């Protein structure tokens, strides 16, 4: 590969990644960008402060959003978040869902789902969750339980062999009690259905490695799902 080709490839890769510029974030445009912009505008208009604000697009066509200062727990392995952080994040998720339920963007569904809720997309100030970020092409109308179950999967390290099942069950119950109206059994049911859909999708696409990941998750659920459902 020539030097110019390498530079072009690097530039393309960088353009596909979110970057911070001053007090803004620049994100590549995706299929749901216009929908996300409208959602964030409507949430701002309703007084919900727990998401970035849209500021248009730059000369490269990237979405411009306000940057929210704080800590985003990231990296591989269990996050081992404190109960206080998990409780605060759950309260923020409930407030986000309630706010989206009041927008016409939910169409005929309960809410607008973020689609990838978890510690990696949550900004904390100390023990307090202050914002949900990274609205990508999974954003759209859906059910509370599906979006919430995704959050439980991430926040309590559900299915992680490095975390005691009893602790996963306790924290699942903590999130359900904090959110209100959702049981651990409903979370297990929603996640199991999600894993089946993902497994079947990857199988149809011939992606054996990804298929195996979800086969393993389903095996875990068959072994421990009943324990999690009891809370």
From TrEMBL:
Highest taxon, organism lineage: Bacteria
> Transferase: present as a keyword of the record?
yes
Coiled coil ranges: none
Task: State a single Pfam family of this protein.
Answer: APH
Under InterPro entries, the record lists:
Aminoglycoside_PTrfase, Kinase-like_dom_sf
Q: List residues of the Aminoglycoside phosphotransferase domain.
A: 102-167
Keywords for this protein: Kinase, Transferase
Any one GO molecular-function label of the UniProt entry: kinase activity
The identity of this protein, by name, is Aminoglycoside phosphotransferase (APT) family kinase protein
According to its UniProt entry, this protein's organism is Actinoplanes digitatis
């Amino acid at each position: 590969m020539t030097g110019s080709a390498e530079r072009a490839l690097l530039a393309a890769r960088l353009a596909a990644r979110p970057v911070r510029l001053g007090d803004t974030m620049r994100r590549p445009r995706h299929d749901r960008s216009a929908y996300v912009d409208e959602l964030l505008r409507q949430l701002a208009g309703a007084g919900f402060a727990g998401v970035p604000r849209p500021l248009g697009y730059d000369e490269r066509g990237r979405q411009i959003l306000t940057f929210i200062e704080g800590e985003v727990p990231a990296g591989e392995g269990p996050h081992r978040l404190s109960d206080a952080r998990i409780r605060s994040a759950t309260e923020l998720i409930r407030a986000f869902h309630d706010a989206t339920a009041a927008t016409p963007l939910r169409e005929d569904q309960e809410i607008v789902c973020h689609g990838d809720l978890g510690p990696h997309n949550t900004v904390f100030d100390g023990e307090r969750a202050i914002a949900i970020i990274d609205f990508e092409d999974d954003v759209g109308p859906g059910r509370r339980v599906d979006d919430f179950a995704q959050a439980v999967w991430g926040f309590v390290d559900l299915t992680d062999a490095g975390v005691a099942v009893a602790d996963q069950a306790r924290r699942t119950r903590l999130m359900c009690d904090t959110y209100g109206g959702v049981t651990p059994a409903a979370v297990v049911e929603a996640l199991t259905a999600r894993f089946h859909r993902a497994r079947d999708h990857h199988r149809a696409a011939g992606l054996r490695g990804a298929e195996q990941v979800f086969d393993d998750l389903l095996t875990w659920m068959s072994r421990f799902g009943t324990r999690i459902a009891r809370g």
